[in-house]
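sry for the spam today, last one i promise. struct tokens for design, 226 residues
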């Protein structure tokens, strides 16, 4: 599980990153809001920790844009602005928690544990997988995009579910063959390309942004590309 840290103060980044890594977290870092938004929409994170005052795009705008993009990852805002009104503005923008600088690292870790426990529980109990405006319900076996129901075959549904459970990760044809077709991949067959094309036409052809992408020579990935 990974945490995305969006902060432009180098010393603060080094301190938080080192502390989180000592607690077995993997940490990605963005030094401005624009890169932070791109990373947050391309890869799944257990938690986003973001400063409010950032170059490129401030933390409040970043938070609002993530929520508008249906990114439900918990967001912990870090800021030197500590009045009640400041906290209300941050929470109204879509943040889940708010920590005022300077802070004791132990308090940060307590917030991290609380927010990621909530995320883990939600991931374990949720029957709905989402990216952008695409939703897959594993109980009802239904798929919708922008509110429109999409009819999939059993294999197409299985393929989409696998992609949604591994958002942002490039998945090779070999892996798809072994996991979804229970066979050793044969380079002479195009069955996987055929099903990818079927799925792409149904979930992407009439919609934007496009979600299913081909990484030439490597495989396929479901992700948001800004």
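last one done:
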């Amino acid at each position: 599980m990974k945490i995305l840290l969006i902060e432009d103060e180098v010393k603060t980044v080094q301190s938080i990153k080192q502390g989180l890594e000592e607690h077995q977290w993997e940490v990605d870092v963005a030094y401005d809001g624009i890169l932070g938004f791109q990373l947050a929409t391309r890869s799944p994170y257990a938690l986003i920790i973001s400063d409010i005052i950032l170059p490129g795009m401030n933390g409040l705008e970043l938070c609002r844009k993530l929520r508008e993009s249906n990114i439900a990852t918990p967001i912990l805002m870090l800021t030197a602005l500590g009045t009640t009104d400041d906290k209300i503005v941050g929470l109204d923008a879509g943040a889940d928690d708010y920590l005022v600088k300077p802070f004791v690292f132990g308090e940060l870790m307590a917030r991290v544990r609380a927010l990621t426990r909530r995320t883990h529980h939600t991931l374990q109990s949720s029957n709905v997988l989402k990216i952008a405006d695409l939703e897959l319900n594993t109980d009802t076996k239904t798929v919708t995009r922008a509110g429109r129901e999409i009819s999939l075959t059993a294999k197409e549904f299985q393929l989409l579910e696998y992609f949604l459970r591994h958002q942002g990760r490039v998945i090779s044809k070999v892996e798809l063959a072994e996991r979804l077709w229970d066979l050793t991949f044969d380079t002479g067959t195009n069955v996987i390309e055929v099903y990818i094309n079927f799925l792409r036409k149904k979930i992407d052809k009439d919609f934007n942004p496009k979600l299913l992408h081909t990484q030439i020579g490597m495989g396929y990935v479901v992700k948001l590309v800004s």
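The first helix runs from residue 10 to 22. ok im logging off now
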